[in-house]
Design goal:
Helices cover 32% and strands 18% of the residues. The protein is an alpha+beta fold. The strands form five sheets. The protein has a five-stranded mixed sheet, sandwiched between helices. The model has no long low-confidence stretch (mean pLDDT 94). Bound molecules: iron/sulfur cluster (2 copies).
Length: 448
């Protein structure tokens, strides 16, 4: 570990900086690793979400500061900002800043899904394929989301207490806002003018492809929330994403005709990894040892949902079948490295990879989201909530333990939950000043 990473890692941990793109992985771990390239994931390939683009438009210098800190900490000689080439105006500004910094370049990506998958991005940026079952670090790269690097640049002076989110879909004023962590999505929807349709609504938290369905919005916003897409509850995307495991299995077993389109368009398969969702679907018919073998073709699935929401002509849910298979294999402690299908390193992507990238415009149409595909302009809401609920689990790792008691007065930015010292995790902080109203092992509630 370099001298700088020995200093910078603890700063990131104390400020509670975690992956803001949805994963919530503590940033200090990446900062304390050794890499030769740091990549900014500015692809923002979840349809309808805009928060990374708005942040880059408003604070590009800060994101570059965060990138430089991460490069210095990891010893990386190169920084790459991966952004879709359709963002021409932002790119001009980014290229201008890059010229004034050392060893940083802007990589223009096509408008396809999932350009922001970190392993796809590593390949686009460096020409290296991450070894199957490995992390980008195994290819010498660290990948960070735009907002994570913005937070890293601020970490010395401010902990993570605010979140950038896009609130869009069936709301009156789709927008991108910065709000105190711990307000509810209901409050955020009100900032976006409220719901604009009369029929019952549901929402997707974190993007139509990889996000989760919310049937009620009284849920606190966390450090890894990406945004909310409000939709009629009857929207086919809500029904598809809410399918139970037994329904996925029953329909998949009887309808899948093994056409293998799900595999042929799978972005990880096209990178050369041995993930084959059609074999996992075939598996739904098996029991016994055959079942275990075919399940293993799910082990390298990143759950991008392309197979379920785009590729399958029968409207089946191979991603859910892969997620179930992975969970079953975890229970019996089978991982890819020791699996029967691990044939070693995948150095080369599929020769047709470039021709099988799925254009965003087609994907949005297929998802039934064309009517909601509007801009979500930045809006300085300056929202002052009456109360916030700070969750103890906002990151990958061990949950925090509350460090305050009911009745205590806390200032904005104070630590209210601590992660155990030698475990993976980060503290959480008060996003407003006020009185601690409630404490339990799940959250700390603060009233202004
Ligand atoms: S694309 Fe659909 S029908 Fe074809 S193999 Fe995959 S799950 Fe089965
Ligand atoms: S969700 Fe489907 S398309 Fe995506 S990685 Fe998994 S198997 Fe491949």
């Amino acid at each position: 570990m370099s001298n700088f990473s020995a200093e910078f890692g603890p700063v990131l941990r104390a400020a509670g900086v975690v992956g803001a793109g949805g994963a919530g992985f503590p940033a200090y771990i990446k900062a304390q690793s050794r890499a030769d390239c740091v990549i900014v994931n500015a692809a923002e390939c979840e349809p309808l979400l805009k928060k990374d683009q708005k942040l880059l438009e408003l604070f590009p210098e800060k994101v570059f500061d965060g990138l430089e800190l991460m490069m210095r900490s990891t010893g990386a000689g190169e920084g790459v900002v991966g952004i879709k080439k359709k963002h021409e105006k932002t790119i001009l500004r980014l290229e201008e800043i890059a010229r004034s910094r050392k060893n940083i370049r802007v990589l223009k990506l096509g408008d396809y899904y999932p350009a922001g998958d970190e392993q796809c991005l590593v390949y686009e940026a460096t020409g290296r394929v991450v070894p199957p079952g490995g992390l980008p670090l195994a290819a010498g790269c660290v990948v960070n989301n735009v907002e994570t690097l913005y937070n890293a640049a601020l970490a010395q002076s401010s902990p993570v207490i605010e979140k950038w989110v896009t609130i869009t879909g069936a709301v009156k004023k789709p927008c991108t806002i910065k709000v105190p962590i711990g307000i509810t999505y209901s409050e955020a929807v009100e900032i976006a003018g409220g719901v604009k349709i009369k029929e019952p609504v549901a929402a997707i938290d974190g993007g139509p492809m990889m996000g989760k369905v919310l049937l009620e919005f009284n849920v606190p916003i966390t450090k890894s929330s990406g945004g909310l897409i409000v939709l009629p509850r009857s929207h086919p995307l809500i029904a598809k994403k809410a399918q139970s495991r037994s329904v996925v299995s029953r329909i998949g077993r009887s309808v899948c005709d093994q056409c293998s389109f799900c595999t042929e368009l799978c972005p990880r398969y096209l990178l050369g990894h041995n993930v084959q969702p059609h074999r996992v679907m075939r598996n739904l018919l098996f029991s016994g040892p055959e079942r275990k073998l075919h399940s293993q073709y799910a082990l390298l699935c990143c759950e991008c949902s392309l197979c379920s929401l785009y590729s399958c002509p029968e409207g089946l849910h191979p991603m859910a079948a892969c997620a179930s298979a992975k969970s079953d294999l975890r229970e019996i402690k089978v991982n890819y490295r020791e699996s029967a299908i691990n044939a070693g390193r995948a150095d080369y992507p599929h020769p047709s990879r470039d021709f099988r990238k799925v254009p965003m415009s087609k994907l949005i149409r297929r998802l039934g989201l064309s009517d909601y595909n509007t801009d979500a302009p930045w809006f300085d809401a300056d929202y002052k909530p009456a109360r916030v609920k700070i969750l103890m689990t906002q990151h990958i790792g061990v949950p925090c333990v509350p460090s305050v008691k009911p009745g205590e007065i806390v200032q904005k930015g104070a630590v209210v939950g601590l992660a155990p010292e030698n475990k993976l995790g980060c503290p959480v902080h008060a996003s407003i000043s006020g009185v601690v109203a409630k404490v339990n092992d799940k959250y700390v509630e603060i009233v202004a």
